[in-house]
Amino acid sequence: MKSPALGRQKQRSTIKAQELPDNNPVLAKDEVCKLLLAHAEIKEALRVPSHADSFTLLRALSHAPNKFETLRNGGLSLAEAMRVADLLDCALQAPQEIQERKKESRSVVTSIFLPCLCIVELVVCGLLVWTLETSTGGWNVGTCSLAMFTNITCKDQTTSRCAVDVEVRGTTGGLRFYTMQGWNLPVAYKTEMGGSNFEAAYLGDRLKCCNDENGHVGSCCSLMDQVSEIFCDNLALLGHTAYDGTECPSNNWDCLFLIDEVDPARASAVQPYTPPDLVSFIVAAGVVFIFLLLAVFWSLIVRYCHCTALDRAKARFQEYLKSLQPEARTAEAPKLRSLLRHLGGAAGMKLEEMKEERATVRHAADRSPIKKEQSRSPGQDSLQPVKRRRLRRHDMQGQNVGEACIKSEGLDWHSFWQKVKQEVRTEATFPTTTMGSEKAMKLEVKAESLGSEFHQKMAAWAERCAEFKRKRATWMPTRPCCPANVFFSNPVAPQEEDPPCVQRLSPKELSRLRRFFDRGHPMFAASLQIDTPKAPRAAANASQEDAGGAACMKMWPWMRDLPSNIWAGRGWAYDEQSGLRRLSCAGGAGAMEGVEVWEAVGTAGQPAAQLPTAGARSAAASRPAGDASRILPGNGVKPAKVLTKQQAKQSGIPNISWQSGLFCWRVDWSERSKGASTRHRQQFGISSFMKDGLNEAEAEAAALEAAKAFRAQLVAQGRIKEKLRDQSLSSDVVGVAYKKEQSKWKVEISRPGGGRRIQGGYFTSKAAAEARALELRQLHGLQRSVTASASRAELPVFQPKAPVPGVCWDRHGQRWWAICSGKSTKRRGFAPSDHSEAELEKAFSRAVAWLKKQRKEIAAQGNIESKARSS
C-alpha cells in the first residue's frame, strides 16, 4: 500500500515537470521567442520581414535546412542555439494567440465598422435624394430651344426686350411638348464703380453666343443667323464661337417650366436650369457600398481566395501514403510526421482525418529504429492536434512554404509536385468522369448540328448589317439593313454601337424568322425575280383585269411606316439593291386588304379641248364591263383632268397631316365642352429637330415620331377616341364601302362641287369594287394625283432691292410677309404668281402699299384718340 506522502511527492514532481519549458509548449515557445528576438540579425538569417511575429519566426526556423547553422548566423551563441534547437519541436505545438486576436478584430468590424458604413451610406443616399428634390423647386424639368420670334420678325418689337417663342420638351412622364410665347431672355446687369454705367449680358452659358462680340446684349436680329435662320442657342451647327473664344452650344438646353393651368399644351413660365453635380454623391455612395460589401462578405472572400494547392497536396499525400510499402513507410515515418503537421495546418485538414493519418504515421514510427536523443514525456509521443492556421507568403530563397517544408526534411518530392501540377492541368482541360465525357460528346454533336444553312445565313446577315453601318447607308422601312431587321416588332435604323440585328432579335422574333426561312419563303431567295408591269389585255372579267393592272403599276402599295408584320409574306421580298420589291402582281388589295393607296392611271392636266363630251361619257358607260380599252389613253375616251389632289407625304395615322407651307407635322383634334366643339392643333416643325444635328430627312422622321407620341398621349388621356375599324371590311379607295345588309361592296362616288352622286353598283369582290371606283373616277375626271412636297433646302430665299422695315420674305410660304405692329399686330402675305423678277417686285410693292396704308390708319386713329382725350 502506497503512503499518502509518496503520492503527494509524485504529484508535486509531476507538476514541476509540467512547469519546465521542455514539457510545456507555451513556456517553450516563450523562451525560444525570447532568445530569438534578442538578436536583430536572426530575421535577416531566416529571410523574414522585419515586422514578422514570433509564430512566423518559429515556422521559418522549422523550414530551415540546417537549423543550428542558421541560428549561429543569426547571432546566437553556442548554448543559445542548442537550447533553441532542443525546444523548437515543443514550441511549435503551442496554441496560436493570433487566432484569438483575429476573432476579436472580426467582432469589432461586425459591431462597429458595419453600422458606421451603413449610416454613411444612408446619409449619402439621403443627400443625393434631397439634392434632386430641392434642385427644381417644384418646377418641371425639360429641354428648351428658341423656335421663332413672337411677332415673326426681329424688327419692331413691342417691348424693350426681345420676345421669342420657346419650344419645351418634357423629360418626365413620357415625351411631351409645350410652347412658351413671348419669353424674354434672362439678362444679367454689371454695374461699374460709382454705379453710373452698367453693362447687360444674357445670363447662362447656353445663351453666351446670343451676346455680341463684346459680350453685351445686342439687337434682336442678332439672336438669329439671317442666312441659316438658326437661333443663337444652337450655333454650333455653323461652327461659330462665342465672344470669349469658346465654342457655341448645340442641341437643346436644360430648363425648368410650369404648365399652364388653362391650356395644358402651353408653358406659363420658363427659366434656364443647371442640373446639380451628382458625380461626387454617386462616387461616394459607390465607394461606401464597395467597402460595405467587403466588410459583409470578408470571411467568404478569404475562404474563396485561400490557396487550394495545399488542399490538393493533402489528397495526393494521402494517396502517396497508402501506396508506400511498410518498409519505406517505417523509414520515412519521422519526415512524414513533420510534413503531415505542416500540411494539416496550412490546408485545413479535419480533426478526424488528421487523427487517422497521425495514428498511421505513429504506428510506423514505433517500428522505426530511429530514436530521439532527448527523452520525452509519455504525453508527448502522441501528436497533438494542430490548430488550423493560414499560410502566409514570405520570401524563403524564392520558394513557397510547402516546397521549403518538403526540402527541409530532405525528401525528393520534386517529381511528386510535377505530377500533381500535370494532373491539375489535365483535369482543367478534359472531363474527369464518364458522365462529363458523354456530356462533352453531346455538346460537340449539338455544335455540329448548329452549323446548318440557317445559321450560315445568320452570319451572312450579320456581316451585311455591319457593312450597312460601315457605308452609312440611309435606312428606310422599304430599304432595311438586312432581312432580320423587318422582323422586329418596331423596325428602326440600327445604331453604330448596336450589335447586328440577328443578335438583337427576341426569342419569339427569331423563331418567326426561322419559320419563314424553313418554309422557303421568297424573301430569302438568293436571286429575286422581279416582275415588270405588263400592258393590260382584254379579258372577260373586267374587275380582275383592272385590279391586276393597277396593282402592277404601283411600286409601294402601303404607308412607309406600316409595321413589317402586316406586309411580310404577302408577295414582297427583300432585295439588297433596291430594298423591298414586289415578286408578282397582286390583284386588288393583294398586299393587304384595306391598306392599299391607289394612284392615278392616266395623264393629268389635259386641255379642255381633249375632254370627252357628255355623249362620249354615256357611250363609254354603256359599254360592257370587260372592255378595258375604254379607260386607257389613246383608246377612245381619254382621261379627264385631275380635280382632286393628294399630299405625297402621308403619316398613315388619323389626325396627323403634313403641312407643306410650314414644313411640319400637325396633329388636329376637336373636343366638346359645354355643348360646343373646339378644334385644337399642335405642330412639330422639322427646324427644331434639325438643331440636334440631324439632316432634313432625319428631322422630318423625328418630327413624325414626336407627333405620333403626342397623339398616343392624347388617346391615352381620352381626348382622341380611336375608331374601331375592321380592315377586312374597309377600303382605302374613296367611294368603296361595305354594306352589311347586302353583304356586298358598294361603289358610290361623290362629286367635288356637290350634286348627284355617281353610282357604280354592288360587287361581291373587294378588288372588283376598287377597280370599278378607279375606272369611274378616271372616266369623270375625279382621279387623284400625288403632289410632290419640296424639301426645305430646295425653297429659294429672295431679298428686296430696297429693304422696307416690316416686310420680309417667308421661306416656308414662299411669299412676302408684311407685319404692322400697333395695339394689335396685323399680318398679311403677298405671294407672287411665279419667281420671276417682275412678279416678285409686283408682290413686294403690294406688300409695301398695304403696310403704308395700315400705318396711316393707325396714325389717324391715334390722332383722333388724342383729340378726344384733350377735349
TrEMBL record:
Annotated region (Disordered), positions in chain: 1-21, 354-392
Keywords, comma-separated and alphabetical: Membrane, Transmembrane, Transmembrane helix
Top-level taxon of origin: Eukaryota
Regions of compositional bias (Basic and acidic residues) in chain numbering: 354-375
Transmembrane segments: 108-130, 278-302
Annotated protein name in UniProt: Uncharacterized protein
Lineage: Eukaryota, Sar, Alveolata, Dinophyceae, Suessiales
